[in-house]
Amino acid sequence: MTTINLYQNQPKKQKNLSASSGFIFSISILVIVILVLVGLKFYVSFMEKQNQALKEEIEKEQTNMANLGSLEKVIDVQSRLKQIRSNLNIKNNQVSRLQMTKVLDNVGAEINSGVVISSYKYEDGKNKITMVFDAKNFSDAARQILNFKDSNYFTSVVLTSISRGTEKISFSVELSVKS
Amino acid sequence: MRLKYLFFPIVLVVSVSIFMVYIWPEIMNISSINQEKKENEKSLQEIKDKASAIEAVGKQIASSSGDVTLINSYLPNKKVEEKIIGGMNYLASDAGVSLDNVSMKSSEGSSLQNTSPTKNSAGGQISSDNANEVRFSEATVTVSGGYEKIRLFIDQLQKMFLFNNIKSLNIYKKEVKNVSSGNTTDKKNTAASTNSSELSAEIIVSFGYLPPVKASNFKISSFEAKIDSETISVLKQYVSQKTESVSSIVSSSNKGRVNPFLP
Question: What CATH architecture is A98-177?
Fold first, then answer.
């Protein structure tokens, strides 16, 4: 028995169905994209409003803070302490600024017998000490200069002048305190 | 029928175009807005924290009025020439040196020498606002005496109960002049001797004062939520207590004269 399939319109119907579902899919994509765009616009506007409100609150809090009664007193005390700390150069619970007596003691520790200081000048801005010495002879003067050069406390030792007087040798030395 | 087939790619192109042109910039915008929001929230929290810290530090200051008095006495808010002169005179007599001369002049602006994160014109660790800078009265003091006494005076001067900075120190042998008159009145033989142990010291000291710091001159961002107790304790140990009483000595002087031109 021979069987003949006479139904021929079936593929055409399927083709129509897939075309209409593709159309719906396309429309859906477009609608979703537009919905996302609209949603984003709303969200951005909402976020911007929130940011603006935050900024206003910050300004308000700043104004409130400036009007705090204790603010000026606190700031005044803190500023004074900052200046004092800086001037005394406080580090590790100790005053680290240069003590004039410490410099004098270190100068004294380096002075040879046969040499005396006739004048001592310390200038803070230049961190420079200028001293004029009287020595019995040139040898004492040379030893004195060497003492300063070997010192662990002083640096940049420069002999600026040396001359023989009637009874003594006079010489001048410039040096700095090691930082 | 053909239009139906063409519709999908057209819609796809349109959708991608809308995404690229409108949606993507909005997404980027959201991330920047979110970032801004986070920063604003952080700032707001910091301000709130600072406000509560200010109140806490304010209470701490109010409870330690002795420390505040110490700070205000050491770095006063106005010129205190009377304390400077009184203090130096007191220290000179205490050290046993002769106070030969004191001269004073005002110098505006800071003249500190130390280093800091924010250096001022003179190198001090000072805020950037000029209104918050230390101002100085410069004193030149000349004393004479033995070396040990001068050394003691210098030590006490540096530890004086006033914000100070020794700018220059000049120690030299005091010239002792022996003046002897001859037979004729116009002939004078003047001889200078420098062999004496007497020394003279000329010291230039800057004494600082800080006008009251206004909140408007202060950067809130530089506010620290604590009081520097280390500086207070070091200051208490460092300064000479001798000159603390000078201000009371100066203020308790007798006053009131009928004829101010007569001694």
Answer: 2-Layer Sandwich (3.30)
Q: Which residue among A41, A58, A73 places its CB closest to the CB of B47?
A: A58
pLDDT (tens place) for every residue of chain B, 263 residues total: 566 667 788 888 888 999 999 999 999 989 999 999 999 999 999 888 888 888 888 888 888 888 899 999 999 999 999 999 999 999 999 999 999 999 998 776 554 444 333 433 333 333 444 567 899 999 999 999 999 999 999 999 999 999 999 999 999 987 765 555 444 444 444 444 555 688 999 999 999 999 988 776 556 666 777 888 899 999 999 987 666 666 555 665 567 777 777 77
With an 8 Å Cβ cutoff, are B230 and A54 in contact? no
Contact B12, A32 (CB under 8 A): no
Query: Smallest CA–CA separation between A103 and chain B, in Å?
Result: 11
Q: Do A125 and B233 touch (CB under 8 A)?
A: no
Contact assignment for A100 to B154 by CB distance below 8 Å: yes
- Could you tell me what percentage of chain A is helix, strand and coil, using 3-state DSSP and rounding each to the nearest 5? 55, 25, 20
**According to DSSP H, which parts of chain A are helical?**
10-66, 71-88, 100-110, 138-150
ipTM rounded to 2 decimals: 0.72
Amino acid at A97: R
Question: Which residue from A23, A34, A79 is facing B210, i.e. has the nearest CB?
Answer: A79
Q: Which of A50, A70, A76 sits opposite B55 (nearest CB)?
A: A70
